[in-house]
Amino acid sequence: MAGPMRIRATEEGGVTTVRVLMAHPMETGLRRGSDGAPIPANYITNVEATHNGRTVLSGVWGPAVSLNPFLAFKFRGATKGQRVAVRWTDNRGGTRTDEVAIT
């Protein structure tokens, strides 16, 4: 399955910037392997970021997103030392949640 996400969250002037690099194959289901057999679809369908139990980002993705997707977003209301969690779910039912402290 996919490896851990690399997350950085920094707060400056009341705005928290979060950058996330997700390790995921993001296969569309349309490509074929070297043997000619179709590669099964495996892509992230939902992404959610939370801070103190509050959803600060929610997104629906599909097969058009690239391998190992990068996501960046900003939100207000956090302070240094608090934590931000990012969770994704894929079309096969796989999930991953990682969190980081805001610096």
Key terms for this structure?
four-stranded antiparallel beta sheet, 103 residues, 0% helix, mainly beta, three-stranded antiparallel beta sheet, elongated, Immunoglobulin-like
Overall number of strands = 7
Please identify the top-level CATH class.
Mainly Beta
Strand content: over 45%
Q: How many domains comprise the coordinates?
A: 1
Radius of gyration over C-alpha positions, nearest whole angstrom? 15 Å
Strand sequence of the main sheet, in spatial order?
4-3-6-7
Distance between the termini: 29 Å
Q: Tally the helices.
A: 0
Order of helices and strands: EEEEEEE
Which parts are unreliable, with pLDDT below 50 for 5 consecutive residues or more?
none
Helix content: under 10%
Shape: elongated
- The assigned structural class equals mainly beta
What does this protein structure show overall?
It is a single chain. The chain is mainly β and 103 residues long. The chain has no helices and seven strands. It has strands at 6-12, 15-21, 44-51, 54-60, 70-76, 83-90, 95-101. The strands form two sheets. A four-stranded antiparallel β-sheet has the order 4-3-6-7, with no helix packed on it. Strands 1-2-5 form a three-stranded antiparallel β-sheet, with no helix packed on it. β6 and β7 form a beta hairpin. It starts with 5 loop residues before the first strand and ends with a strand.
